Amino acid sequence: MQAEDFDVGAEIAALRQGATGSGAFVTFTGIVREYSSGRADGATSDKQLTAMTLEHYPGMTARTLEAIEVEARSRWPLDACLIVHRYGRLEPGANIVLVITASPHRLAAFEAAEFLVDWLKTKAPFWKLEESGAGGHWVEAKAIDDKAADRWTVAAPGPAQHRKAG
Amino acid sequence: MQAEDFDVGAEIAALRQGATGSGAFVTFTGIVREYSSGRADGATSDKQLTAMTLEHYPGMTARTLEAIEVEARSRWPLDACLIVHRYGRLEPGANIVLVITASPHRLAAFEAAEFLVDWLKTKAPFWKLEESGAGGHWVEAKAIDDKAADRWTVAAPGPAQHRKAG
Amino acid sequence: MKLVYFAWLRERVGIPGESVTPPADVTTVGALLQWLKARGGGYAEALKDLSVVRVAVNQEYAGPDAPVRPGDEVALFPPVTGG
Amino acid sequence: MKLVYFAWLRERVGIPGESVTPPADVTTVGALLQWLKARGGGYAEALKDLSVVRVAVNQEYAGPDAPVRPGDEVALFPPVTGG
Q: pLDDT tens across B72-93, in order?
């Protein structure tokens, strides 16, 4: 994790140097939206954001990101994977998080990237404080994120098997 | 589609200008591998590739890419999406295809990107000729790609519903 | 009618495309393929296994029962492998 | 024992962390939360709904029955919202 911004193109290029056997690269970039993401109870709110502050728990964040990456590598054949998560005060349009996966198989690259993002959202110790004209507001965890993360807790021996059930 | 290379970072940056409501960007980059991708019958082949030539059907390619994009936009809430597919002779490590999706919802961005790649692989009129020391070899279509594309032919009203069955 | 060929189908036929005037009773994709196959040589070689031949009429995928008419652009190619 | 607080839990408690010495019978996460809550004020406010309180002991998630010992680093925070 870092306070500094990242360059998606440069990170992909760097990862490609070390993954020459991979034909498939998937990236996920999360950025600060211009409007509030709505409340956990489903009520819509269109507050225009002035900033988003990401608080984190430094020691645990590092451990968690490492554990999540190890888990992804144990589940899918990845030549490379990268997680970058920023913290601090970020303005709308700013990068928050970048996940990149590289695999010989595109389904593996996609699934591993989704897994990493789902786990990041539900396990990595980050908290978002939205700032708008109405003041600061801690973003509430969403049930849909828990549900998304739960997809991966059923035994999933590999991409093909997982998809078969879909 | 184009013969020229593309810059993933620049394409993402350009797309972000027009998708300020989106918090989630997913990219898929397909690149030429160093080794043959194996035969359709599952036999492994580790032939080192010297090049990959992509033949295409120009008029139909343009129509198909457009139709695929329209279909993706009708299925998921996308602020932006982009498909770039190269043709001609490409060396190992070269970019072949880039898909980017932008959505307020990460599941939509992921699913739409997977959908676009699956449909590209099974509908867009491109053919790969692998060149190795053993000569030229037309890549055979894979049953696994048809199966991947078939995921999207069942009625899929949206990301949540689709995933629920998984 | 304009025919165009791609990938190994093009290689087996030996030319990228041609103009043809099939008999009046060739009104479907299926009939067109049989008529071409009966020409022998590269055509017979290219069309010996129709399960790996895909057809587009005027740049849209078409099944064996789809109509073909004079003036159409009919493309024959193997299953696609892009992406 | 070192306690650390994050996000709105930190705001309600009013400090980012502190060293505490709970009574000897406070040996689990659950007991520690009850002991803190009984302090009242910001603690009672922060811990009034334990369904939205997550705990990590020595930087690993821990349930109510997990042991806590002198010297542990115990973190209290709301469900995470990164990514």
A: 999 999 999 999 999 999 999 8
**Could you tell me the CATH number of the domain that includes residue C56?**
3.10.20.30
Predicted TM-score (pTM) of the model is 0.87
Cα separation, B100 vs B115, in Å, equals 11
Select from B141, B116, B159, D74 the least CA-distant residue to C79: B141
Q: Mind listing the pLDDT tens digit for each residue in A118-154?
A: 999 999 999 999 998 888 999 998 887 888 888 887 6
Chain D, window 8-37: residues with a beta carbon less than 8 angstroms from a chain A beta carbon: 8
Instruction: Please give the pLDDT value at position C15.
Output: 97
- The reply to whether B66 touches chain C by the CB within 8 Å rule is no
The answer to whether A126 faces chain D, any CB pair under 8 Å, is yes
Minimum distance, in Å, between the CA of residue C17 and any CA atom of chain B: 12
Number of Cβ pairs < 8 A linking chain B and chain C: 72
CB contact under 8 A, B128 and C81: yes
Contact indicator for D1, D74 with CB cutoff of 8 Å: yes
Assigned CATH topology for domain B8-153: Aldehyde Oxidoreductase; domain 3 (3.90.1170)
The total of structural domains in chain D comes to: 1
Alpha carbon separation from B29 to A9, A118, B104 (Å, rounded): 11, 21, 21
Residue extents of the structural domains in chain B: 8-153
| Domain contains D45 | yes
